[in-house]
Amino acid sequence: MKKIYLFCDQGMSTSMLAKRMQDIGEKHNLPLEVKAHSIKTLEKIMEEKNPDCILLGPQVSHLFDDTKKRLENYNVPVGVIDSADYGMMDGERVLKKAILLMKNHKKRGE
Amino acid sequence: MGNMKNKGLITEDNILIDCNVSSKEEAIDKLAELLVELGAVSDKPGFLKDIYERESRGFTFAGDYLAIPHGWSKHVVRTAAVVLKTKDSIVWDEKGNLVKLIIMFVIPEGDEMGQGLKMIGQLFSSLGDVEAVKKLLDADTKKEIARLICNYAHTKSKF
After folding, report:
1. Per the database record, which ranges form the PTS EIIA type-2 domain (chain B) (predicted)?
2. Which of B18, B37, B139, B145 is the most buried (most CB within 10 A)?
3. Cα first-last separation, chain B
4. Residues of B with CB below 8 A from A5's CB?
5. Bridge partners for B103 per DSSP
6. CA B64/CA B7 separation, integer angstroms
7. Could you tell me the fold of the domain covering A2-109?
8. Searching chain A, which residue's CA lies closest to the CA of residue B106?
């Protein structure tokens, strides 16, 4: 089970996209858990859930560097959701990019 | 908070339908007015400033004629959600996206873990389903909209 977690201010707007990604994953029988959270809860979620991929909503893209720093001690890839994909609520594209992000992260680790 | 638990997240009092608005600003103003009437917002001008700060960062258009303007604000007294359905679609953003259904939620500053927020989170998760949004767009009474939203807000998440 791969955990892909989306973060924005409150984890509200991203929860719609998370649901779409989850549904796409289920359609393709992928063992995924896609959830949305508030960026304020980042460390707590990391400790409790140990996610495999962190995606920031484009509305909090200015927090990317800060988030990378906060995740320094965790071995987890971090990305920003493409604003066009987000605007279209395109769960499939965002999911594909997340899977690629995890693959590249794993490769770099080897 | 107790109040919200008893009455549910959204009652017919939180919903405006057949609204004759021609712009996003007009719609947001009507919603802010309603939030003041409901006692969820204490200071309308201050609150509007915070809402537009969030709007300036974009991405409150959620596809399928739905917009979800929102924000934390010190001018918010309690977590609340309000709904506005327009008579005709309005332009929401600089990309020209059209909107007929607006769901605005507001959260008091510092209350990001509240119970009401959990329900709103569940509501938006449910709205990730295109069919769920369609049903809301098709609903033409306050009663039906309130019923649908309460259902969505109480759908148990799989995880």
Report:
1. 8-152
2. B145
3. 25
4. none
5. B83
6. 28
7. Rossmann fold (3.40.50)
8. A10
From CA A36, how far away is CA A91, in angstroms rounded?
Answer: 13
For residue range B10-33, what is the model confidence (pLDDT) as tens digits? 899 999 999 999 999 999 999 999
Main-chain phi, psi angles of B81, to 5 degrees: -130, 140
- A33 contacts in chain B (CB < 8 Å): 159
pLDDT for the residue numbered B30: 97
Q: Number of residue pairs across A and B with CB atoms under 8 Å?
A: 69
CA–CA min distance B50, chain A (Å): 14
For each of the domains in chain B, give its residue range(s) and CATH number, in order of start. 2-154 (3.40.930.10)
Domain boundaries, chain A: 2-109
Q: Per the confidence metrics, is the pTM higher than 0.80?
A: yes
CB-CB: which of B62, B107, B126 is closest to A13? B62
The answer to whether B105 and B120 are in contact (CB under 8 A) is yes
Name, in order, each residue with C-beta under 8 angstroms of B26's C-beta and a sequence gap of 6 or more. B90
